[in-house]
Design a protein that fits this description.
Helix content: 55-70%
Strand content: 5-15%
Strand order of the largest sheet: 6-5-4-3-7
Number of helices: 24
Number of strands: 10
Structural class: alpha+beta
Length: 783
């Protein structure tokens, strides 16, 4: 099998990686390794590496053995950490060792020598384990280098060309011999009386398994598809989409159960022989490939308009994509079958190149068409919405489509030139990558639908939690993607081993265990802080006499203190020693201080605002020419909603250092001034009485102090008056002004009081300049 592992082997590799990961995560401390046995294994491994003649299977097995020893040595590196730390603390407690020529008390000297001897005795196994670990690590790296070099050579070396006609008869001979060998094996088993007798004895079981298998293979996909479609048609909500997705998985599981029953039924008869068993063993991975491709085609390219699709394609393009997906599955299944027979019958390289070429050619052409459809996705979205400039998913699909088209074009050319291994390592991993990307996209949509079903609300499907879950799903798919593109299980285990050993920064080591401990403890502390804040805000503080602004300040302060303590406890629980980073942090703080001095100033100002509370949420303030209501006060800035319903973000430093007018601080009582002008010659006392009646009658005006009418002065065009009254709620200032002005206009009309308008007299210095000029006399008539 060239280029990469097929689906069946990739799935098995993933299972192995998961098992290794779980076993490593839960592994307990083991006893001291047998270094004599390790010496023998290490010598044998180093000789094999030096010779570089062993097969890939032998080297892989040897590497696994050496990696097992390395894991034991790694466990020994931290076996006595706690005891060694205790001994170091005890020695430090005795004080510094005496200088040369000085002496100390005999009891202290004896105790120091005893503790030093214990520390030396406990440190010896660690130093031995460090040397053995280094040696094992080097052997593993050399084996990996040999395997990678062989893999690269296999891809880059040119082999026989499939377009050479001299290779065709050999390929045809191998194919006919394999088919004839299967028939001969079946005939030989059939003519064996013992085999026929066993088949007859198992006939009821065979018939039952065949009946169940045929029904499931032929009808179960249709049942699942119809049920999923009915669920999604009955309800267009997120719950129906999630349920339809779960039901649609029956298109894979139920036919696979049927195929499994058929394979077991045929296997029970024992009439196929060894050659037939090769075909029988290949049926299950082939069936999984075909059923999975059919399911993926029905979900990514649904023929029905009622089903959602990740791609914005018209119906005719979806039908085309559906067909391409299924045919690609057939090509991959045929490749799996061809590899099974080539491994068993030992096909020579020319025959294998000729037999693989049609599959590579068809796969390449289909990939080119599939890439074209993926690029059309962004085009159709732009046609439907002219303002659409492409989101991340659409741009990713378009870029992937271009890469798929290139792979489909290059692979057949490489195969024709004799680079069959490289062509196969390009076509089939691309097919698997498309399947993986499609599956991840469907799973992400299912997670969003499921979360929106459990937590209904506007925008729930696009909230933070399903987005993070989708991101985690992408991360989990990366190891599988690496296996698809030629990575070996040993590569993944090596990466995991390095992650497990941790990242060392100075004297601090960050391992996955400490990282997850840090995250879990911090999240628990954060949730506890939010719970305390909620309890204080809803249950405790409302029962006190603290004003709303003070309550907000207390809740915010608890949040900052709680998050700080959660981070401190999380770092301590993870066992991270940050003292080694103190010097670096001190150096960075200088640069950060200069670069973020504005942010720090706003942060400190925000804390001052929360403590002193010169303004509170809901206050009507004016700052920097902006007037409005305070809607929220954060650590960095304050949000003000103006009267035209726009939000103004004001840095907290401006509120502390600038001049702020608070119209509603403490209470909502405030004064309003309404100017009025009347014509010259009007009785001013009469005007004062009318205005006083209007002001006293208004319900928003306070009786004490009573409204006052002020004769403000003699204006250029009018006698100027002002109505000054204290309102119960200054927030109604504009409404009061509007109502009072209407009443003034009505009363002045009734009382005959004139409201003048501006008049101006214009004097001209030389009015003769405006007279028309007389025409000049005609020179011919002038005598």
């Amino acid at each position: 099998m060239q280029g990469f592992a097929p689906v069946w082997q990739v799935l098995r590799a993933v299972c192995v990686v998961l098992v290794l990961s779980v076993s490593m995560a839960w592994a307990q401390q083991v006893s001291a390794p047998n270094y004599a046995e390790w010496q023998s294994v290490a010598t044998r491994a180093e000789q094999a590496v030096e010779a570089a003649q062993a097969s890939d299977e032998a080297l892989t097995s040897l590497r696994a053995e050496v990696a097992g020893w390395r894991q034991q040595f790694q466990a020994q590196l931290t076996a006595n950490d706690s005891r060694l730390q205790t001994l170091a603390d005890q020695i430090d407690a005795l004080g510094p060792a005496p200088a040369e020529g000085e002496s100390e008390a005999s009891e202290i000297a004896a105790r120091r020598a005893e503790l030093s001897a214990q520390r030396e005795r406990l440190s010896t196994p660690r130093r031995t384990a460090e040397e053995a670990f280094s040696r094992a690590n080097g052997v593993v790296a050399e084996i990996d280098e040999i395997l990678r070099q062989r893999q690269a050579d296999a891809l880059l070396n040119a082999g026989p060309s499939p377009v050479n006609p001299t290779h065709w008869p050999g390929a045809l001979r191998h194919a006919t011999e394999s088919a004839g060998a299967i028939l001969a094996s079946v005939q030989q088993a059939w003519h064996n009386p013992a085999a026929r007798a066993r088949a007859q004895d198992n006939l009821p079981l065979v018939l039952m398994l065949l009946a169940v298998g045929l029904v499931l293979v032929s009808r179960s996909r249709r049942w699942s598809e119809v049920l999923a479609t009915r669920i999604q048609r009955a309800d267009s909500g997120y719950g129906a989409e999630a349920a339809g997705f779960v039901v649609s998985l029956g298109q894979i599981l139920l036919p696979m159960l049927g195929l499994f029953a058929i394979v077991r039924a045929i296997g029970v008869t024992e009439l196929l022989g060894q050659r037939g068993a090769v075909l029988l063993n290949a049926l299950e991975p082939m069936g999984l490939t075909l059923f999975f491709s059919l399911w993926l085609a029905s979900r990514i390219f649904p023929r029905s308009d009622t089903l959602r699709t990740p791609l914005a394609l018209p119906p005719e393009r979806r039908v085309e994509g559906n067909i391409y997906t299924v045919v690609l599955g057939v090509v991959f299944a045929a490749y799996t079958l061809l590899n099974a027979f080539s491994d068993y019958d030992r096909y020579d390289l020319p025959a294998l190149a000729v037999l693989n070429f049609p599959l590579t050619l068809v796969g390449g052409l289909l990939l080119m068409r599939m890439g074209w459809l993926m690029r059309r996705n962004l085009q159709h979205r732009s046609e439907d919405n002219p303002d659409f400039d492409g989101d991340y998913a659409s741009r990713f699909v378009g870029l992937l489509g271009r890469l798929v088209s290139v792979a489909g074009l290059v692979a057949p050319i490489l195969a024709a030139l004799g680079y069959g291994a490289a062509a196969q390592s390009l076509v089939y991993p691309t097919i698997l990558t498309l399947a993986l990307v499609g599956t991840v996209a469907l799973m992400q949509r299912f997670l969003r639908d499921l979360y929106a079903t459990l937590r209904p609300g506007e925008g729930a499907a696009e909230s933070l939690i399903p987005t993070l879950a989708s991101f985690v799903l992408v991360l989990l798919s990366l190891p599988l993607l690496a296996l698809i593109w030629g990575a070996r299980i040993t590569d993944l285990t090596e990466v995991w081993a390095r992650l497990r050993s941790g990242l060392t920064i100075g004297d601090m080591t960050i391992s996955p265990g400490s990282f997850f401990t840090l995250i879990i403890v911090f999240v628990l502390g954060y949730l506890l802080t939010r719970g305390v804040q909620g309890a204080m805000k809803t249950s405790v503080l409302p029962k006190t006499r603290i004003d709303p602004g003070g309550q907000t300040a207390i809740v915010s302060g608890l949040g900052y203190v709680g998050i700080f303590l959660a981070a401190l406890v999380a770092i301590t629980a993870a066992g991270l020693d940050l003292s080694s980073l103190a010097i670096v942090a001190g150096a960075l703080s200088v640069g950060i201080g200069f670069g973020l001095q504005t942010v720090v100033s706003n942060f400190v100002s925000g804390i001052i605002l929360l403590i002193e509370r010169p303004i509170s949420e809901g206050d009507w303030i004016e700052v920097g020419g902006q007037m409005g209501y305070v809607r929220s006060i954060s650590v960095r800035s304050t949000r003000i909603e103006t009267f035209d319903r726009t939000d103004v973000i004001v840095p907290n430093a401006d509120l502390i250092s600038g001049t702020v007018t608070n119209y509603t601080r403490g209470n909502t009582v405030g004064r309003v001034i309404i100017p009025v002008g009347v014509a010259y010659g009007t009785d001013t006392r009469h005007v004062e009485r009318v205005l006083k009646e209007i002001a006293d009658a208004h319900p928003m005006a306070l009786a004490n102090p009573a409204p006052m009418i002020l004769f403000a002065g003699f204006g250029a065009d009018s006698l100027d008056f002002e109505i000054r009254m204290i309102l119960r709620d200054v927030n109604w200032m504009m409404s009061v002004k509007n109502e009072v002005n209407h009443q003034i206009a009505a009363r002045f009309a009734e009382e005959g009081i004139e409201i003048p308008f501006a008049q101006r007299d214009v004097w001209l210095r030389n009015p003769e300049a405006l007279q028309p000029r007389a025409p000049a006399p005609d020179q011919e008539g002038d005598t």
